[in-house]
Amino acid sequence: VGRSFIEFVHPKDRSTFASQITKGLILPKSVYGMQNKVSELCPVNSVSNIFCRLRHYRGYDACGFGMKDQELTYLPFSMKLVFKSINDEDGKNVYLIIQAIPCFSAYKEPNEIITKSISFIIRHIANGTLDYLDPESVPYLGYLPQDLANHNVLLMYHPEDLSYLSQIYETIVKQGEVPRTKSFRMLAQNGDYVRLESEWSSFVNPCSKKLEFIIATHHVIEGPTNSNVFQKPRNEIRKFVNFTEEMKINSKLIRENIVKIMNEVLTKPAEEAKQFMTKRCQDLSIIIESIFEESPRSEEMLRKGQGRDSEMLGGISPNHDGKSSVETPLS
User: Is the CATH number 1.10.390.10 carried by domain 120-266?
Assistant: First the structure.
């Protein structure tokens, strides 16, 4: 009690936590040039959800007086943040209420066969950089969304599966989408691999005709050897230590080729977008030409219309002082 909550947040997650709670708390100046009260500007009752690792409590019973020599342990939590306006002894104040729910691995045993997996989405741009990680993936891969910010998704594929995935990417780029694929392996947070089957789609910018991003919907069919995806990896370079130098070099070349495919191969969606824009330009050109062709006709019809109006009015001439130029005998 009395300690700052952020002290218990993992150092890697503190910026995520801080940025989330400060959203909407910038204090604009009032009409009188004075800053308004925080209680009047906080997004009261607004709810936001994040994932953070919190420090595991170490008691004297477990560690004795050698607590400082023990490595800190952090556990992943799904956290719901809510600002609440509460009247207390000091008046009306705003408090941050945090509801933390622990995250557990989706797997119970090594290499578990998954029959009812929840699908999750991963999206990356044309150079492989990941720009969206579905929160549903957390118990299946072990990564928190902030862990993979600006991370290259191509590094998460098993080197032995890259040749097959290169074919998949070429099909995605050319056709725009790929139905459910054969299984392949993806690296989990603990350094082991999970086996997935996936459906793929892509988005091509209709203006630049270039591939913007690729969306993959993944279905886990087999868990990793180490069933606890949140466990700390055995080594920092993960399981690449088991691959030969030749495999590492070959994997690097295939990844570079996949990036080249995403940026240089002419896509079917891009060709369709190009044809669509060409047709739109042709239609617009026809409309503009028809407008210019109609303009002289409209002027000619207007002149003819004015002549008929003069005849209907009895040929009134401005040189006859308003008298009819044709005298009509009385009956």
Answer: no
